[in-house]
Amino acid sequence: MVKKLYLSPICPHKDLKCLEGEFLPNKPLDNFVNYDCDIYANENGKRKLIAKFRQNIINPDLADLAIDSFKKEAKKSSGKRGIASGQIDIKKLSKNVKKIVNPNSITSKVIWKDGRMSKYYLANPVNSIIAGYFDQPLLSKKSEILKKGLSPCRTTYFTEKKQKEWHQVLPLVKRVNTIYRTLLPSKFSAQKKLCKKIPQYCIDNTIFTTLTINYNWQTACHVDKGDLTEGYSCITVSEEGTWTGGYLSIPRFALTFDIRHGDILIFNPHEYHCNSKIIPKTKEYTRLSVVYYFREGLLKC
After folding, report:
1. CA angle 55, 273, 21 (to 5 degrees)
2. Distance between CA atoms of residues 301 and 290, nearest Å
3. Dihedrals φ, ψ of 148, to 5°?
4. Global pTM?
5. 4, exposed or middle or buried, with CB in 10 Å at 0-12, 13-18, 19+?
6. Per residue of the chain (301 residues), what is the pLDDT tens digit?
């Protein structure tokens, strides 16, 4: 049976801006969810869906596909993820960094050990990649695209270069698409109409344009930028070995979700959220989260 929770926020949304880039304590918040549940917000006299959580709704073999396809690339990747990577920390940067120019920021230029200042801004390295389609150009091609007035929309490196792995994981994406259609039919229909405007940027006839894949990464408090304003995102987790933590929390409603292999969370990505630290129980372990969503900027392409 699916339980329903009706929660009042502990503060206005804007009051949580002070938590941007911060890592929350590892202890779960008051409303700990590890069971089938629909959660709604009671705010300003209105009721709005925050999230829907379902356990064991994805076949384990399908959940394994994410590890088979994404783990190798996500494990070695160190890209910029903005606020979600947290306040820049010299301990997480290259050993060649002597000093951070703006130590209280998310990104900063640095002073190398030979005394030179970096020409570009650094952020904490993270193990995260994107797949599918994106509405921003590669940094290496940004100036050329702006100069020539070309479309910034593109196929991601993973989808273009890792064809075998990409096609291998599509059954999982389609399963998540089906679950979304079942649990949020009205939102699904609205997003499907948008996909008909840009079918070349929607993943294999689903309502998703983009996937973000995170490997063993604790995210800092942030809201997802660029996602469809009225849309909801889906998160699945694929795991190997044994670990605890990695809880996804939505602090404004004191909500914490324990998402495990075969589970799915559909939630409002415009609420501040973050993950707790992942604590390994075995030497080798994997917590691979996949976020499925629609990039609103692709509609302009």
Report:
1. 145
2. 25
3. -90, -5
4. 0.93
5. exposed
6. 899 999 999 999 999 999 999 998 888 889 999 999 999 999 888 899 999 999 999 999 999 999 999 999 999 877 678 899 999 999 988 899 999 999 889 999 999 999 999 988 888 999 999 999 999 876 666 666 666 666 788 999 999 999 999 999 999 999 999 999 999 999 999 999 999 999 999 999 999 999 999 999 999 999 999 999 999 999 999 999 999 999 999 999 999 999 999 999 999 999 999 999 999 999 999 999 999 999 999 999 8
- The partner residues of 130 in beta bridges, in order of sequence, read 212
Cα(242)–Cα(84) distance, integer angstroms = 24
Contacts of 251 (CB under 8 A, 6+ apart): 10, 16, 19, 24, 29, 221, 272, 273, 274
Strands of the 255-257 sheet, one edge to the other: 31-33, 255-257, 248-250, 274-275
* Angstrom distance (rounded) from CA 218 to CA 226: 21
Domain over 3-85+127-300 is classified CATH 3.10.620.30: no
Alpha carbon separation from 141 to 133, 146, 147, 155 (Å, rounded)? 16, 9, 10, 14
Distance from C-alpha of 223 to C-alpha of 135, rounded to nearest angstrom: 18
Q: How many CB atoms lie within 10 A of CB 164?
A: 7
Contact 126, 215 (CB under 8 A): no
Q: Which amino acid is at 77?
A: S
Domain locations in the chain? 3-85+127-300, 87-123
